Known about the structure:
With 462 residues, the protein is an alpha/beta fold. The protein contains eleven helices and 22 strands.
Amino acid sequence: MKKESAWKKYNEEDLEKLNNICNDYKRFLTVSKTEREATKEIIRRAEEKGYKNLEDYIKNNVEIRPGDKIYVNNKGKAVALFHIGEKPITEGMNILGAHIDSPRIDLKANPIYESDGFVYFDTHYYGGIKKYHWVTLPLALHGVVVKKDGQKIEICIGEEESDPIVGITDLLPHLAAKQMKKEASKLIEGEDLDILIGNKPKIVTDKDEKEEVKNNILTLLKEKYNIEEEDFLSAEIEAVPAGAARDFGLDKSMIMSYGQDDRVCAYTSLEAFLEIEETEKTLSCILVDKEEIGSVGATGMESHFFDNAIAEICVLMNENSPVAVRRVLNHSKMLSSDVNAAYDPLYKSVMDKNNSSEFGLGVVFCKFTGSRGKSGSNDANAEYIAELRKIMDDANVSFQISELGKVDIGGGGTIAYILANYNVEVIDCGVGVLSMHAPWEVTSKADIYEAYRGYIAFLKNA
């Protein structure tokens, strides 16, 4: 069943709104290249809209009332937002959930070493990547170094015009005959993704000093950031593609940027959520870390930070039943806001076109993810999908329903199954992406706008 491009329904007013959303989205992407940066920006935007920290409510034992706007900052890497409705919270919430981590290159705990006059950072890649994508790219370094006294030093090198960039070298084609015979998965080995950071030796009077280039780098880091070599033991530094999000295509109909999986859904979920001024039903927006490595850890969706936050809110709303949190979640509905593999005519062999998401056709519902025989997926029920179809149609939101690819080709996962474990009604719903998990990904502006509109419709009407 072929749907019409969302572009065809827009008038001048619609196009102005679309462009405003997409221009703001590009700004969000450019300043939110890591989960820490995204969390900081999300909280900044939430506080501008009147959201207050749950810790302040708890500390001062302040009763939570309908209309209150609350956020939870989980270790600077994940955020949960709540807009308290007029109805009892135990009647359930409407929830949007996305992740704010993306595939990248991480520095190891002992990263810096010198080899034959070059200095490198030793690395460990994060998430599912094609390793050969990451060579010869201009890379920027983002993250934090925490010293033993608790001082936290923020690092961002490579984003300003005056900044140096770093990168991973590759073998010239003239000498690569043996390399080119390898399988793509082994063309570049994980241990070869080390980042070149320097070549100039330290100018010294002691000619017997060893590792002069490394010592010069360490001197520069000490002078600019007050970082010693041992401080890397308690650092989280990520190498990501340097540069801002940009319009893509001669018609400027698309956006190319690093990290659109899944910050395209995080942004549209956040902005839709902050748009709601009044609500009968309590609303929530969860933006979490670690999805790309299985949603593990204290800041991933497997953590209990979300239900712990609900428990704290229930207590401050005098909902003191031992089953209050279970009632909240049992009656809740959710869109797991995550991206989908958009149909690419250059790679049609892995796609079932009739069941693939296409650029410009709107927000994408994915009934199940998983792999092959739906293994590891949340398989949403027909009743819930029918309800969502009506909500979208009533709001004139362009939407499509898709699978990830052909049945036996592969698969993937999202956070949907985790919330389903609490008996929440949940389905994946997001934006189609080309070149997913590549350093630079591409999305359609029409799909971004329709996701934003669709999330608003869901929050108001589910």
